[in-house]
Structures are given as structure tokens and as C-alpha cells.
Design brief:
Blueprint: H1 2-30, H2 37-44, H3 48-54, H4 58-69, H5 71-83, H6 88-105, H7 110-117, H8 122-150, H9 158-176, H10 189-204
Helix pairs in contact: 1-2, 1-4, 5-6, 5-8, 6-8, 6-9, 6-10, 8-9, 9-10
Length: about 210
């Protein structure tokens, strides 16, 4: 009996992830507004009633997609950066590297999707800004402040510098999912991120050795 129940239970537990995966593919292909829950259920191989058991609305499904695909990466990056005893420079490199790696591995760009849908769905935009953008920026600001306090970095504006650090990674990720067929990017995000970080660190480091 347990041998029969086991696979069924595993299948049931996998359904939310399968629904989210199907939804993300459709969101990227058709846009959030044009995607219907009927389409998501069909693509996930479940009934619409089953979909509603896990996600009561399309908005709830989209928020779950962000929570399942982006938030775990942020959790991991925060743990790596904040619990490390390395210098602020090394922790900043670790955070940037981890972000670039996560974006490199994404099949689609949620950032691009948010830009296209932001004006029509302000509540979803607020959720994304609060739980992804501001959270990411806050971590960078903490690391920048730590570098200033430790004497690695000169006095600077942490908020402005955090935006400067993350913007090229975000733009390149969006570019890759928008213009790649006409203007392909031949390097990965980590190459760009580290190259950009080298330039920034050279500008804010008090001593040259902190940029190594």
C-alpha cells in the first residue's frame, strides 16, 4: 500500500512547482495580461480546479513564481555575504557573482516581464520592488557600508553605488532576452559583472590591495 501511495504523494507535492514552471513559460511567451489560468492548467497537465487548490488567482500564482524562483537565490546570497568573515570587498564580489550566476541560469527574464507589465499591474510591481529590488539593494548597501567602516572603501553614497553596481547586470539580463537574436551577447553575466565591479572598486578603494 505504501509503495502505491508514495509516488502519488510525490506527484501531489510536485504539482505546485509544475504549475509555476508552466506559468512562467506562458508569462514570458504571452505576457502576464494575456496568460489565462486555463492555459496554465493545460500546460501543467492539471485541471483548473486543481490549479485553484494551490493558487486562488493569477496574481497569487505570479507572486508564488517570484517567491519560488528568485527568493531562494536571495536567501542564499544573503547567507553567503552576511555570515562570511571575509573582507567587505570579497563579500561584495561573492554577492555580485551569485546574482550574475542566478540570472545566467534563468530561462526567462522576470525583470523584462515586470518592465512590460508594471504600469498595468501596480500591486505586482510593488511586490517585486519590495521583495526583490529593494532587498537586493539593501544587501549591497550593507556591504558597501561595511567596507567604509572597515577602511576598505572611501566615503561614498551606499544607495547610489548599489544602484550603479546592479544596473549593468540587470540591463544585460534584459538585453539577452530581448535583443539577443539581433545583437547576441558573447560573454556571460559574470564576466560583465566582475569587469564592472573591478572598475567600481578601483574608484572607491582606499588602498589598491583591496581591489584584488
Amino acid at each position: 500500500m505504501s509503495d502505491i501511495a508514495g509516488p502519488r504523494q510525490r506527484r501531489k507535492e510536485a504539482r505546485p512547482g509544475e504549475i509555476i514552471e508552466a506559468a512562467l513559460i506562458l508569462f514570458h511567451q504571452k505576457g502576464y495580461a494575456a496568460t489565462k489560468l486555463d492555459d496554465v492548467a493545460r500546460a501543467a497537465g492539471v485541471t483548473k480546479g486543481t490549479l485553484y487548490l494551490y493558487f486562488p488567482s493569477k496574481e497569487a500564482l505570479f507572486k508564488a513564481a517570484i517567491s519560488e524562483t528568485i527568493h531562494p537565490n536571495l536567501d542564499r546570497i544573503e547567507e553567503l555575504a552576511l555570515k562570511s568573515t571575509e573582507s567587505a570587498t570579497i563579500r561584495l564580489r561573492t554577492a555580485i557573482h551569485s546574482w550574475a550566476t542566478a540570472l545566467n541560469e534563468c530561462k526567462g527574464s522576470i525583470s523584462k516581464l515586470m518592465i512590460s507589465e508594471a504600469g498595468n499591474f501596480p500591486e505586482l510591481t510593488d511586490f517585486y520592488i519590495e521583495t526583490v529590488i529593494k532587498r537586493s539593494r539593501s544587501l549591497l548597501m550593507l556591504l558597501i557600508k561595511a567596507g567604509v567602516d572597515s577602511g576598505e572603501f572611501r566615503q561614498t553614497d551606499p544607495d547610489m553605488l548599489a544602484r550603479i553596481l546592479f544596473s549593468p547586470i540587470l540591463l544585460t539580463s534584459i538585453w539577452r532576452h530581448t535583443y539577443a537574436s539581433q545583437d547576441p551577447i558573447t560573454y556571460d553575466l559574470n564576466q560583465l559583472a566582475q569587469f564592472h565591479l573591478d572598475i567600481v572598486l578601483y574608484g572607491i578603494a582606499i588602498a589598491p590591495e583591496h581591489t584584488l
